[in-house]
Amino acid sequence: TKEMLRQSDKLSAIGQLAAGIAHEIRNPLTSLRGFIQLLDASVGGAQRNYCQIMLSELDRINLIVSELLVLAKPQAVRFQPKDLSELIRNVLSLLESQANLKNIQMHASIDEQLPLISCEENQIKQVLLNLCKNAMEALPDGGEIYVKGQQVSAEHIQISIRDNGCGIDPERIPRMGEPFYTTKENGTGLGLMVSQRILEDHGGSLQIESERQKGTTVSIVLPVCVKSASQV
Ligand code: ADP
Ligand code: MG
Question: In this protein, which residues make up the domain named Histidine kinase (predicted)?
Fold first, then answer.
């Protein structure tokens, strides 16, 4: 246990360092972005194209840095009782227009009167967003996504996100959630790892089931808020 403590000290020191560096990287990125936008407005032809490439590459750096920031956990997390069905609807409405564009139908079926969960709202939204985005990205030619929320035991709520997309080879499933493991041209390979980490922090878990060409179901389980359980 002494060795484990030393390890976790080391990890939290590394986390803090990473968070510090991430913040330091973000500020110059913001000013770079601003100047490139100015440049973009004053040049023409091929140079415009270069500006667009620079902007999208900057956005990619930003995305990676923000995902690393979640991992480093610099923010003080405040757990509060929240209604999951509201969070789910919230996330789905964020994705609605993108889904329409890609010819994807999103269906939600959420049990009435789900008990509250104790969570950091933005982090759980991040998880739902990451998983729904993966489902959408598995449907390049459109398709269906079903989001289901239900109470599975006195203490647990389950949310499952199912798509009828490309699926995953069984031997690749264990690799998902490894840092930087991606099969996408523009992927970061951080979404699932970040999600898993957030769920662990909430005492929850994540499970992936998939069949090649048929689709994928990602289920997460979260503990019910103790207060709300005792009120019921
Ligand atoms: P990214 O989306 O940036 O690639 P993730 O950590 O979110 O990173 O996902 C890692 C990999 O897991 C993806 O590149 C993809 O191969 C696979 N994956 C995740 N979700 C799905 C899904 N719903 N359907 C098919 N493959 C998936
Ligand atoms: Mg992803």
Answer: 20-226
